[in-house]
Description:
Elements lengths: L5 E4 L5 H8 L8 H16 L4 E8 L2 E12 L7 E10 L8 H16 L4 E3 L6 H9 L13 H11 L2 H23 L5
Helix pairs in contact: 1-2
Amino acid sequence: MRAQVLMRQALDTDAGALVTLWEDVLRRVDADQMIDDVRRVIDRVSAMHEERIVVAEVDGQVVGTVHLKATTFSPINLEPVVQAISPHVLPEFRRHGVGTSLVSAAVAFAEELGIAHVGTAVHSGARDSNRFMARLALGPAATLRVAPTSVVKGRLQAQRPMFMRTAGRQLPKVLAARRSARRHQPSAL
């Protein structure tokens, strides 16, 4: 049975519920700091015309949310798009129309702004979420890959040819040897 879903903009008082929904995508800090982070996001977004956080309520309980952002496909492809960022629904309310209502909110926001495209990012391992988005005609357009900076730096250094890895470390030794050799040469008078 489909639940009666009420859609509205997020309020500061929704921060605790949004932490519960977004816990897996928030930075890893204690619960109070997560709530403060979400409150700051809500405050920032509520003052912006091109962004909106929408919550889905069932019987007065926040059961889903999505962050909507009007932007471009990429910094170099200036085609406008509404990104539906981190759509989440509580597990016990999935398959009850909440996710559909969140995507409908993204479509309504895009239409309100005169934007012809809606996009979203879904975790690559979230099979049900990916299938849901595919059923709504949202297909893959890119793959976002992320790793810690230090790991990428290490891998880049490991892939450089050996002579490039050692050349920078040897230069000070070569220069010191040249200086030393010059000091030990008799001066030509």
